[in-house]
Design a protein that fits this description.
This protein is mostly helical. Helices cover 51% and strands 3% of the residues.
Amino acid sequence: MRANPEALDAADTIAAVLTDPRTAWATAPPGGRAWPQSLAGGAAGVALLHIERARSGRGDWATAHAWLSSAAAGNLTAAANAGLYMGAPALAFVLNAAANSSTRYQRALEKLDVATITVTRRRLADAHVRIDQGDRPAMKEFDLIRGLAGLGIYHLTRHPHHEITRDVLAYLVRLTEPLPDRGLPPWWTDLSPNGTPHPDFPSGHGNFGLSHGIGSVLALLSFTLLRGLAVTGTRDAVERICAWTDQWRQHDDTGPWWPGFVTLDQVQQRRVDPRLRPRPSWCYGIAGTARAQQLAGQALGDTARQRVAETAMLTTLRDPAQLDLLPDIGLCHGKAGLLQAAWRMAADARTPGMAAGIPRLAARLTGQITQPSALTDPELLDGAAGAALALHTLGTATAPTTGWDAILLLG
């Protein structure tokens, strides 16, 4: 794909607004600034933008260091709530991106890595006890944002051959092995999609999303197959997940799509209301689920699966009504997440024409960036920093030097 100068200019504009961590939060929405060590909404996430720019020669290390210092301010948590997007693991991912093969930040990174391994071992022990007892998981046990899939992508990035990496992957394989229950998949949770009990979900739900559902496990295990790093049983695990997602794949005039989640009532009726089609976001929609399916198709050598996934993305990019469902700019719920997923899928696509729809989506996003109101929220996951990273990728037509979109399980 060709470089996109307009996208690069828009990324530069955002980065200039986010130069100083002391002033960048001045126009943020009400509710207060997130913890600095949050990858989603704090300084750690904005630091990742400036590290990518510095490593690609588009920014400077002084700005990146200023944001890293802001992210490391205060006590870092390695408590039970620590994960890829919060605490020691979040800052470890960012510092690893900054260090690369240099000696930069190595002492701090080594300490954070030890803390992250400790967090991971505690989480693995709890997960295996839960499986041994035959209980159903909470999403935060295995998902990307809070769980072991997120910790897994950190370890896979930082030290792919380490014992802790193999242990996480082995757990994710075990997660897919059937439990003795009503024919529901073993990742079915008894909770609602927000991770708590709710009367609207008396029997829980099965979650497809890349952020909080089984899509994260599918993408991560597929990456290990593609990179020759898979543990025993990985292919079977990927096939089990695919078999379940295939049962729920839908089709309409726009093309194939997957629900964000299904309830027990839908399982019993074997039907998903077409009105429940999720917007094409990264977290629950086509941007995430299609990329996970494409990766699975590549990993399994299943060209039919890969083409279905690419058709889902291609038809979405061609449908203005679907794009209108993403009024926000961010990675999680907005245009930037769809843009980054489309760029990654186009780079791997067997289906012709995938790249042709990307400039139209990018034009929507860059047009929105010119509005001052679009840049009030600096954060990575839902705000300007994430949009800048996606636009930087398109603008340079180069895979991220930091591999930052591993935090989305896109690349």
